[in-house]
Amino acid sequence: MTIKLVVLSNAISFFGKNLAKDEQFMTSALAYIQETLICAEFIRLLPKFMTPIVGGIIARTLKSHAVIFNCLKVPKHADCIQWIMETSPKNAPWTPQRIVHELMAIWFGSVHGMSTTVAFAIHDLCLHPEYVGPLRNECEAQYAAFEQTGTGLPLLDSFIKESARLTPVESQGTRRAALQPFALADGTHFATGDWFCTPVRAIMTNPVDFPSALTFSGFRFADPELVKSLEKDTTNGAFKEMQKKAMKLTDCDMTYHVWGTGRMTCPGRFYAAVVMKVILGQILLNYECELVDPAAKRLFTWRSTTLPKPSAKVVFTPLGEVA
Ligand code: HEM
């Protein structure tokens, strides 16, 4: 009885209220004491070299150990918190506070980046209705497979990439402060504390890299053969402006800076691309969308950021109700 009383009194401080009320856990926590005592006495009788081997075998066979370890083990989650914990520096792991701080920074960046990029892509669907047919056909044919694998929908992939090229959320990227005097390969010199960045918008509208750079060409990044096969769907040559080389939404190079550059290129872009395709795929499969006033200003710029104007309203009409 005494041991039971001590176990009960101790349990809240050791394991917290929830586990202290868990009958299966508490039975095992009590059994653990007795099993450990017997096991320890037995092991003391063995030659020293055998103790770790036999001790390990006994520990694995004791039921109480299994229950306790299963209840106390921190589960491995498939989420962003787990990823942050695993990528925190091994030699000086981050405190819980730092992990929450990192999580909220990523939460902000990812929600802001994705919501703005998707909003602009929806505007582009409204402004360039010639793309709706081929995109909807692609979704009808491939959305189920995309749901299984998270890959595919190459026309939608290109459409989102083109929308983000012409309306990137940020006009400047890869902002860095020089921590010590620093020179670029071309000799440009930075003193300690100087800031520099890449002109994202200017780079992505450079006519050297993008034919008809200021024209929206939703399939310019797709495979030219695939786009050619759509020619029957268009009468006005809408899909003719193509890049020299096909490029996926998640690809980045010196001409496409939406995801940043170099060592800090966005690691969330594969996830972001899938989420954006889910949202736009569902819209294409279920709705017709229309800007209430297509001629009105739909974006505004604040410093280097471009955002959708809250007044730029879109009407979504379920496909079944389209007149
Ligand atoms: C359309 C949506 C997104 C855009 C446009 C975007 C853009 C960017 C850009 C430009 C950078 C580089 C910043 C720099 O070099 O200073 C970056 C970094 C980063 N992004 Fe994204 N991002 C998006 C979505 C996401 C999502 C969904 C996640 C995570 C779930 C994410 C996680 C990160 C992280 C952790 C970094 C920092 C990488 C590092 O420090 O090495 N992003 N993102």
TrEMBL record:
| InterPro entries, A to Z | Cyt_P450, Cyt_P450_E_grp-IV, Cyt_P450_sf
Sites binding heme sit at 266
List cellular component terms (GO).
membrane
Q: Where in the cell is it found?
A: Membrane
Gene Ontology molecular function: heme binding; iron ion binding; monooxygenase activity; oxidoreductase activity, acting on paired donors, with incorporation or reduction of molecular oxygen
Give the keywords, sorted: Heme, Iron, Membrane, Metal-binding, Monooxygenase, Oxidoreductase, Transmembrane, Transmembrane helix
> What cofactors does this protein use?
heme
Q: Major location, coarse class?
A: membrane
Q: Copy the pathway line from the protein's UniProt record.
A: Mycotoxin biosynthesis
The UniProt family comment states:
Belongs to the cytochrome P450 family.
Q: What is this protein called?
A: Cytochrome P450
